[in-house]
Amino acid sequence: MDKEKQVYSMLEKVYDPELDQPLTELGFIDQVIVKDNHVKVVFRLPTYWCSPNFAYIMAEDIRKYVSEIEWVKTVQVHLLDHCASDEINHGASAGKSFREVFHNVSDGDLEELRKTFDIKAYYARQEKLMKYLLKIGMSKEEITSLSLQELNELSLPEEGRLLREKYLEKKKVFHHSSTFAITTPEGKPLTEEEFSDYLKGAKLTRLSMEFNAHYCRGLLEARYNLSAAYEGSLAK
């Protein structure tokens, strides 16, 4: 694999925190420039006024994941056409925190913001998995009593395996002590009686995120006169 492809492979791990989709799929990566062992990643957002803290999370993650490549010595992050491009580009490329760069911003704690978006992503991924398990014939009782080991041992086709992988990836973020597979973000197991209302709430979160992703794609395409290559459809 050549160097540019290695960089793009790592960029697939960088998600828009609000949308829970990779920047590579959203069309937010404009270009990757590799010179010897130095990398410059140019990215763009749907509007000039996209929240600086959201943008900074993405810039931090770009630098973090690309820096993990063995041969990479430096990573320069460059956000195009944004109201805070200069601050974000200089700060993120230098490895500074959001609070160090934006001294006067009251909500400067990105960790709390990350946690909020992790919870939303957890609900969205969990809802897809729960709905899939119902589709293949599992009952509410079976799903709520399922242990992590049992979930991992389920023999599933590719679609199910991918949904399980995505959900468990996000579940690890919360370090749950419970052995139950399906829990609230706080790690509390669900009862059979709570199942339907919980699933409805998780579905609303997922649909909201998918609508926002669809909207952002449209804004990006209009702003940069792109084709509909990144156009997605809302899940029904």
From TrEMBL:
The protein, known as: MIP18 family-like domain-containing protein
UniProt cross-references to InterPro entries, sorted A to Z: FSCA_dom_sf, MIP18-like
Gene3D superfamilies: Fe-S cluster assembly (FSCA)
Ranges of residues in domain MIP18 family-like: 4-77
Organism: Aeribacillus pallidus
Superkingdom field: Bacteria
